[in-house]
Amino acid sequence: MTEAHTARAHAKLAPSSAHRWVECPGSVQLSEGIPNTSSVFAAEGTAAHELCAHCLETGDDPATFLDMWIDIHAPDGKGRFVNLDEPPSATDEFRYFVVDDEMVDGVAMYVDHVKSLMPHSDCLLSVEQKLDMTHIDPRIFGTGDATVLDMQSQHLHVIDFKYGKGVSVDADRNPQLMLYAAGAVRRHHNHSVAKLTVHVVQPRAYHLAGPIRQFDLDLIELMEFEFEIEAAAARTNLKDPPLKAGEWCHFCPAQGLCPARREQIYQDAAIEFTDLDINIQEIEAMTPEQRGQILRNADSIFNYVKAVQKFEHDRALAGDMPAGFKLVAKRATRKWRDEEEAKEVLAILGVAPDALYEEPKFKTPAKLESFFPGKNKTERQNAMADLVKKESSGLNLVANEDPRPAVVVEAASEFDAVDVG
């Protein structure tokens, strides 16, 4: 089982932040000494990555862990998936995350995509492997989510899972993925590699190209990139490295102190609100009243966006679809047609009564599948087919470019919930 994400060493020039330090060399020195504290969203992403790695390594179906909790601080795989009698306390908000339908869907998309890149047995899968890019700069190293080397076609795939909703990530010349590709090629130096493809799987953030994107390159292109990234890394060591604001500031720990970022916000606000007297200051210089006003404004904008989303959900259900969007069914999960009948069949199969429950409810089909006869998952699912039905938990409102089939609007009343994305 892989090492826990929370226990790993972090590179000073991390591949995950390469887009920022390539565009803004000064951000590295400006961030020194500032704790890069995790958000609850980042911690949730860590939990989803733990489930991804486990399912790739063991072959387990992500749905098997539905309603369980992931302990991202557990030192090994045995303790990472737990059943809790009640939700964790506020002090454990960043430690335990429930495996809900959305996480099952996202992880299943990633796992299925990785498996699709292994069409035969002559493929080498590596999960959460440490990748060394110190030949470019001694401060660059990281861990790749998954790599697949098809040794017949000499095709190396580098796959990165993104669970975030807020910022969609491109695959084309993505510096993080190309750094992982550089490390993966060196890791497989004993094998021939003729072609490289980097993949982004991001199930919860809209992107015009869909939730799975990829970019092809060859070894010469990779070598040219390595020269470029070597020069970019060297710029971070300048006495006064330049600061440059842009969308890469989003996750920078120093953005609250950065004069370039402050000037950019001022200019953007001045363009948008030319009739307002705006004076954006450093956070440390603001009064409690000013900080409170910013928080109130942020809540107001967030609430407005949520209200627009709900309004468009309701309009879409009524048949008035927003331009460029459609309704699609969420991933169906298996449920018992009749719990009592399922209990009787399991009793005939000799399953002990105490194995059937996770208090206070009857276990799901995914968790009791192993008790049914069959040599493999398909045979066991066929054996229990008469006892199981598949139900989608609702509808998602997504852009037309999403590959899932559209649901006829008239049928939307059968579903209880609709979400965007």
Name some characteristics of this structure:
421 residues, alpha+beta, Lambda Exonuclease, Chain A, five-stranded mixed sheet, three-stranded antiparallel sheet, 15 strands, 34% helix, globular
Give the helices and strands, then pairings:
Layout: H1 18-23, H2 26-31, H3 40-58, E1 69-71, E2 81-82, E3 96-98, H4 101-116, E4 123-132, E5 141-150, E6 155-161, H5 175-187, E7 195-201, E8 212-217, H6 219-235, H7 259-272, H8 288-317, E9 325-329, E10 332-336, H9 339-348, E11 357-358, E12 361-362, H10 365-368, H11 377-383, E13 388-392, E14 395-399, E15 418-420
Helix pairs in contact: 3-4, 5-6
Short recap of the structure:
Helix content is 34%, strand content 18%.
Task: Explain what you see.
The chain is of the alpha+beta class and 421 residues long. It folds into 3 domains: 5-233, Lambda Exonuclease, Chain A; 248-302, no CATH class; 325-420, no CATH class. 34% of the residues lie in helices and 18% in strands. It has 11 helices and 15 strands. It has helices at residues 18-23, 26-31, 40-58, 101-116, 175-187, 219-235, 259-272, 288-317, 339-348, 365-368, 377-383; strands at residues 69-71, 81-82, 96-98, 123-132, 141-150, 155-161, 195-201, 212-217, 325-329, 332-336, 357-358, 361-362, 388-392, 395-399, 418-420. A 5-stranded mixed beta sheet has the order 4-5-6-7-8. The protein has a 3-stranded antiparallel beta sheet with strand order 2-1-3, covered by helices on one side. A hairpin with an 8-residue loop joins strand 4 and strand 5. Helix 3 crosses helix 4 (101-116) and helix 5 packs across helix 6 (219-235). The longest helix has 30 residues, at 288-317. The chain is globular, with a radius of gyration of 24 Å. It starts with 17 loop residues before the first helix and ends with a strand.
